């Protein structure tokens, strides 16, 4: 019996996405693959709600973490200042990545399970000039959801020259996100989360102004494989239906992402957001009202793709669910890691009630606790 994986990524794949992995190898510049990749890039724009012509989407071999490197290597000079809003482990890791590439990082830390105060962000932007600000839309370590729209509005008003960079690894596909309307400059995600594809692809979108900065001869690119100067013409050619080469794309993974994006867009991205919200609201209500458990995040700041909740003896809960065929995750926040569990509810597990994945996880947690 195969376990039902309800960690916050990789997630359960739909049968169509699973089958798409079985495509025979294609030459990466063949007409067949160029057609697939062109559609993937165009549909990536649609899922991010980005402009159909301006800026550029990227689908590269890697993970969500590679998106941090892309931002750090292409969107900031060494010794320039970056402001990082931290709501957990992954926000802190983004800060580490920026520092590794030579940025001077100021970090604003939220209390555990809380958000960074908007007034404090405004004040900090008035005090210092920043090349970029990073917003972790959902920190997967705490399930805290930040209000990207309001934060972006503050940045545009106080420091319009600052690039707005969003880590959307645990949000793109399950949280409301408007790249173009909100004025985002760079947003990154990963194939194995709410996009509903297998692990192995870094998926991101850059605005026109950030793209021009990254491509400028004056901008020092601090990576070879992660150079947007190298990747941009390749992506532009593929999107326009022409083969190109810098490094070999992951053909089978791109094909599975093609099917996954098509499933999202047939459903409509707005409906996906609503379905994830409905599932997460139900699940959290059962945990807090019927089992009297406490969420790590405040209810109004909770993500819709995963839930982090305090339980007594997390290892016993994890073990009980595993024994009954359901895999969930433990805590990883450095202050509270041993006190809570994390349950992912993204993709088909959240939107297809026939699967019964989330109700079953709830019943098993209930049994484990009692």
TrEMBL record:
Enumerate the SUPFAM superfamilies for this protein. Answer: PLP-dependent transferases
Q: Where is the Aminotransferase class V domain?
A: 28-333
Q: What class of enzyme is it?
A: transferase
Q: What are its GO biological-process terms?
A: glycine biosynthetic process, by transamination of glyoxylate
Taxonomic superkingdom: Eukaryota
- GO-annotated cellular components: peroxisome
User: Which Pfam families does the UniProt entry name for this protein?
Assistant: Aminotran_5 (PF00266)
Q: Which UniProt keywords apply?
A: Aminotransferase, Pyridoxal phosphate, Transferase
Instruction: List the GO molecular function terms.
Output: alanine-glyoxylate transaminase activity; L-serine-pyruvate transaminase activity
Q: Which residues carry this modification: N6-(pyridoxal phosphate)lysine?
A: 193
Its EC number is 2.6.1.44
The UniProt record gives the binding positions of substrate as: 342
Q: Which cofactor does it need?
A: pyridoxal 5'-phosphate
Q: Known PANTHER family for this protein? A: ALANINE--GLYOXYLATE AMINOTRANSFERASE 1, AMINOTRANSFERASE CLASS V
Which family does the entry's similarity section mention? Belongs to the class-V pyridoxal-phosphate-dependent aminotransferase family.
- This chain belongs to the protein called alanine--glyoxylate transaminase
State the organism's lineage.
Eukaryota, Fungi, Dikarya, Ascomycota, Saccharomycotina
The coding gene here is AGX1
